[in-house]
Amino acid sequence: MKIMSLIKNWHNLNSTAKARVCLGIAALTLLLLLIFSAKPWSVNLGEIKQLKTHHYVKLWFWPGCFFAFLVVSVMGISAGWLARPLRSVPGLSPQVSSPKWFWPMVIGAALFLGACAWVRLDHSLWHDEASRTKSTMVGNFKENSDGRFKFKKIKWEDAFFNSRLPNHVFQSALSKGSHDIWLKLAGPKAFPLSESALRFPVWIFGVAGIVLLALLLRSLGSAEAGVIAAWLLALHPWYLRYAAEARGYMIVMAMLPVLLLAFMRALQTGKTRWWALMALSQVAMVYSYVTALYIPLVLNALAPLVMFSLRKDGLDYVR
Question: pTM, whole model, 2 decimals?
Fold first, then answer.
């Protein structure tokens, strides 16, 4: 009954209460995982000749959940301190309206990029793409003891945790899901590999990245800069290349403007949803290409300085 009442009155709750409910659900989920998932001390390394993916999962999944549980718990306890009413933030432009030519020009750039990249989706897989396709997305033929070859399909566990080769985890999971859907739609008589299905999620993020960059620059006060940047990106050879390859770079390019836009909106409005979007975009970036870690590291190092600077001026920054 209390749960139903909470759902019905959700819109009447303040941001502090909403944050604590969401963090409480996350903490409870993590606690259940800690209780019921395999424990790292259950793995007897002395009896294992070669570590496989499921061994790494057992060794590191539980410590990861434990660390996440601690972080979520601290966030829940400190929610009352963080959630304070925001009045205004100087130095950030209010949400601007778009000139009539903004959206046609931006959509034109996105369609141009999408059309140029689309014709390359069914090209043969490159070296890195082929290696990761076999190890994290589709599978590979393995020779049995009798000399016969059998196709070994990749499990979802491999898509998320296999790191023998550089694994763009979020992209691998999306491409695997896209390819699995294609296999079901194509039927058993179809050839069991589709380069287009593997690359389709990346293509979506490549097209979206054009629009998101334009929106970011428009929010900073220059619709003209947004249109110019959209077309420069659509015409850039490297961007065009990676918009049609099964790698995680396009996800990073799309999430970067989302990250900056969410941070700006969080400072402007103080809404919890913008802070959440900021966090999720960072997770997507790092899980798509781990070297992108430097971007959230720098931003998260500077973000507290910005917020405390605003608070020093008598302004609150979260609500």
Answer: 0.79
